[in-house]
Write a structure and sequence with these properties.
mainly alpha, Multidrug-efflux Transporter Regulator, Chain: A, Domain 2, 2 domains, 3 strands
């Protein structure tokens, strides 16, 4: 099935402007045009856009995404390069997760403090040192529970 740029924008959450920008930046050489010169996308293109969006959301620079797209066009001779790129990006994402878990721990700790303060009516009544901080395993379990509740 083929999709217009407007339909793809709705399906992906990317704006038409962003899709045109991605094309201009060489990120979407796979996009074809119909007889009238309008961009048309297929399901494989949607998958590629989802991957580009994922990489962008993990902080990968456009230049590296463009390189990845080029390697894909070049074929199997670049498999090792693509693997190395994703292994490198995994390290970046794991560091982001670590930082986010530390932030989640701080936020949860404050929720615990303010929950107790609301019960007692005074923040000064709460001994912050007595409130245990959640372990990484507990934080990850909280993330898993969120995913299950939101069907992610």
């Amino acid at each position: 099935m083929l999709y217009s740029i407007g339909t793809v924008a709705k399906k992906t959450g990317l704006t038409s402007y962003t899709l045109r920008y991605y094309e201009k930046e060489g990120l979407t050489p796979f996009v074809k045009r119909d007889e009238q010169g309008r961009r048309v996308f297929d399901d494989d293109d949607l998958d590629s856009l989802a991957l580009i969006r994922c990489l962008k959301q993990t902080g990968m620079p456009l230049e590296e995404i463009r390189q990845f797209v080029t390697w894909c066009d070049e074929g199997d001779g670049t498999l090792a390069d693509r693997l190395a790129l994703f292994q490198q990006q995994r390290v970046v994402v794991e560091a982001q997760i670590h930082d986010l878990l530390k932030n989640l721990q701080k936020v949860n700790h404050k929720i615990d403090i303010y929950s107790q303060a609301c019960v007692s009516g005074h923040e000064a009544d709460v001994d912050c040192d007595l409130i245990p901080k959640r372990s990484a395993a507990e934080l990850l379990a909280q993330v898993e529970q969120y995913e299950a509740e939101h069907e992610l």
